[in-house]
Design goal:
Layout (H helix, E strand, L loop, with lengths): L3 H9 L3 H9 L4 H20 L4 H29 L9 H11 L15 H10 L1
Helix pairs in contact: 2-5, 3-4, 3-5
């Protein structure tokens, strides 16, 4: 099994094999959850550190809630609303793959560099 850091790097490189790997590996749920937490914390730091502690907390929680809403909508639309005949996914598979797909968001911590916040946020979102 790959190391956690290796999986984060492979996810950031958009390695399709990594996403198939974590989809099949139910033990990767903890790692996927940690990626989401790190990405959300990075967004909180990058977007709100200069505004104080409470802005950091609010931005981190907002990023976590936003991720969860996105994951739920993706699951619902993909499996209930417009599934293909061969669509076969459960919530765990989806949460693990979408969790690792959040790895580029970790660069949002660089938003603390003056003048880079919106640029970094845009890059992480598009990535």
């Amino acid at each position: 099994m790959d190391t956690f850091l290796n999986r984060i790097i492979r996810a950031a490189k958009l390695d399709v094999h990594l996403f198939e790997e974590v989809e099949a590996d139910s033990s990767a749920m903890g790692q996927a959850t940690l990626v989401v937490i790190l990405s959300s914390l990075a967004a909180g730091i990058g977007n709100g550190l200069e505004l104080g502690f409470w802005a950091l907390i609010v931005n981190t929680i907002a990023a976590l809630v936003g991720w969860y809403v996105w994951a739920f909508m993706t699951y619902f639309i993909g499996t209930k609303f417009i599934p293909e005949p061969q669509t076969e996914a459960d919530q765990g598979q989806l949460l693990r793959t979408i969790g690792f797909s959040s790895s580029p968001g970790i660069i949002r911590v660089l938003g603390i560099v003056p003048g880079l916040g919106s640029v970094i946020s845009f890059i992480a979102s598009v990535w």
